[in-house]
Amino acid sequence: INSMKNNHPVLLTDKKNEPEMGVQYSLTKEGEIILSAHSDKLLCVIGIAGPQRTGKSFLANTIMDKLEGFEIGNSTLPCTKGIWIWGEPIIHEDKAIILLDTEGLHSIFRDQQVDSAILGITLLLSSIFVYNK
Q1: For the whole model, what pTM was predicted?
Q2: Strands 83-86 and 9-11
């Protein structure tokens, strides 16, 4: 397995509140660049989701064999917002392994509609889904 070239996470989805359409999620330009750079490979996506403050980002960093990377907070306040992707996939043979880290669910700072969108998008994108409880 090749090591990472771009050793930092990148926001994958952007959230906009459209008055007529409600909340809309779209792929960020940075996310699009990362994914399109590996369009010649089979993408294998590992998505991690679960309640806030349960160690999702720590688990993601551990999978990447990194001490730092996805932001980890030391308080009860959430630190990950939205859906993040590691800046460079792990390349293994003809596969590009993509790791997603998500904003924690059940936050008192937002409504369940955001939770549903984050969980739904992550489930739809993932080849392997980890619910870290």
Answers
A1: 0.77
A2: antiparallel
